[in-house]
Amino acid sequence: MSDTLSITLTVNGERISTQVPPRLPLIDLLRETLGLTGTHLGCAQGVCGACTVRVDGETARSCLMLAAQADGCQIDTVEGLTDSGALAALQDAFHRHNAVQCGYCTPGILLAAAELLDQAENPPTRDEIRDHISGNYCRCTGYQSVVDAIAEVAGSRAARPKPETAP
């Protein structure tokens, strides 16, 4: 019986093949093996949202997912989405609205906010924003500035002209 499993996954656009212990949490693979420390471990129970990543385009708690379960998956972390520019408008708005205090929860909130804005056909209301980020705990900001920042980005996206589609 082997003590490790072979997995291949794509992390931030890079294909990675590695050996992992069967019970290694995905967050440990990301942080300890791959050095992607923007994903934080908070509660280790999937409650706080600090460990949020995208798995095949959907947010997921990396503390609850085993690395072996990510075999064949596309994983995007805050580092990858920052490098691609996908979070730039949100990051700028967070800075302008002072929505970052200690910053521990910020990567998870940014990923949740990006998911909401990417899925919304219309700009989300402040209540919808609060509901969507409710799984991300923040002890520093009181959320008002976070909601302000997300609402600003949602409003600016809505104000952009829609691309015309060919008939």
Task: Describe the structure in brief.
With 167 residues, the protein is an alpha+beta fold.
Widest β-sheet, arrangement of strands: 2-1-5-3-4
Structural class: alpha+beta
Q: Can you name the CATH architecture of the largest domain?
A: Roll
The SSE string, one letter per element, is EEHEEEHHHHH
The shape is globular
Mean pLDDT, rounded to whole units?
94
Please tell me the total number of domains.
2
Beta-strand portion reads 5-15%
What does this 3D model show about the protein?
- The protein is of the alpha+beta class and 167 residues long.
- It has two domains: 77 residues, Ubiquitin-like (UB roll); 72 residues, Orthogonal Bundle (DNA polymerase, domain 1).
- It is 36% helix and 15% strand.
- The chain has six helices and five strands, in the order ββαβββααααα.
- It has a five-stranded mixed β-sheet.
- α3 packs across α6.
- The chain is globular.
- The model has no long low-confidence stretch (mean pLDDT 94).
Topology, element by element:
Blueprint: E1 5-11, E2 14-20, H1 26-33, E3 52-55, E4 58-61, E5 74-76, H2 78-83, H3 88-96, H4 106-119, H5 126-132, H6 144-159
Parallel strand pairs: 1-5
Antiparallel strand pairs: 1-2, 3-4, 3-5
Helix pairs in contact: 3-6
List descriptors.
Ubiquitin-like (UB roll); 6 helices; 167 residues; DNA polymerase, domain 1; 5 strands; alpha+beta
